[in-house]
Each structure stands twice: as C-alpha cells, then as structure tokens.
Amino acid sequence: MVFSSKLIEDAVNEFSRLPGIGKKTALRMVLHLMKSEESSVDRFTGAIASMRHGIRFCQHCHNVSDSDVCDICTNPARNKRQICVVENIRDVIAIEATQQYNGVYHLLGGILSPLDGIGPEQLNIVKLCQRVKDMEVEELIMALSPTIEGDTTVYYIARQLQQFPISITTIARGIAFGGELEYADEMTLAKSIAKRLPIDNYVSTIAK
User: Fold this and answer.
1) Residue 139: helix, strand or coil by DSSP?
2) How far apart are CA 158 and CA 153, in angstroms?
3) What is the dihedral sign for C-alpha 116, 122, 63, 107?
4) I want to staple 103 with a disulfide (CB 3.0 to 4.6 A). Which of 34, 56, 79, 108 is the partner?
5) CATH superfamily of 6-54
6) Gyration radius of the chain over CA positions
7) What is the pLDDT of residues 92-116, one digit of tens each?
8) What is the CA angle 121-125-130, rounded to 5?
9) CA 88: distance to chain centroid?
10) pLDDT, tens digit (0-9, with 9 covering 90-100), for 106-160
C-alpha cells in the first residue's frame, strides 16, 4: 500500500496495530478522521489519551476503574459476601450484561498456563485468598472459561481455599467446553450463573 502522505501512512500503521484491524480498514478509519471536524478528532484522541494515562485498577477486585476502588465494589447494594472469580475485564462486562448477578468480582488477570509461563505467582490468587479471609465471604463463584487451563485454575484455587468454611460453586456447563466466557450469549451465560453447581464433584472429576 503506497501513501502520498507520511502522516497518513503513520496513522494507518498505528491503527492497523489494533486487534482485527487490517491496513484497508485502518485506512478507512484514517480517512474518516481526516474528513471529520478538528474538534471531533481532538475529542477522540483526547479520550484515548485520558483513558491510557488515567485508568486505574481497583484495589479490591482489580477491575479497571476511574478511582482507587471501582463502582461495583463501592456500591452498597452489591452483596460483598459473594465473589465471582473471573479471568479479565471482558468477563465482567459479559456477566454484568446478563443482569443476573449482584455480588462483587475478583479478576485473576489470566489463568494458569505453565506452557505460557503463567503460574500462580503471576495471578491475583494470593489476594483472592486474603479477601476471602478478610471479608468473611459466604460463596465463591468460579466463572472461568471451560477450558483445560480454566479447569486447572479452578482446581488450584479450590485447593488453596479448602481451609475456609465457604461455599465454592462453578457456573453450569451451559458454556461449551473449550469456549470462551466472553463470547457466550447473555441468555446462556445468565442460566449458567443461575444454575451454578457445588464445586465438590466438579473438582474431584478434574483431579482424576
């Protein structure tokens, strides 16, 4: 792709770095911005810059936030004794969209994957155990994607928390094995949460 302007070429190259954006799509975006009002482009670039420099991570659940503690954790209507353990922010968004969950969350920041060099030390597992202890949690909902890595993570966390008198459940298998939680439709995900299962039999199955 040949450009008559180095400025446009640089802009296209930067847009094409985004996931799922090829050079042709990036070019359409750049040309759209070029035709837009300068004030509109300034708002766009300003919002991106403000997000990148100002975003924080909740000190409690590690969700993205505009302040030290996210809106979910500070909401007095949320059940603080019920924690839903998820992999990342995309899973929080997917579950919140179902409007079927009223507890709080804990983002692990990934799942165990020895082949990729991701062990317990790279995840927020120790902090999860501390929250369970400090908050007197009644139920921990393991809402991780039903993959080998996700199941291994569920098993590991359950072992770490076996000393605590809490109920540990996992979302029902409405999500196909090998699927990603964030791509499940809202109805399937809502039913999986509503019909969650005790983890005892689930963990013993994984351990075999």
Assistant:
1) strand
2) 8
3) positive
4) 79
5) RecR Domain 1 (1.10.8.420)
6) 21
7) 998 999 888 999 999 999 999 988 8
8) 125
9) 2
10) 999 999 998 889 999 999 999 999 999 888 899 999 998 878 888 899 999 999 9
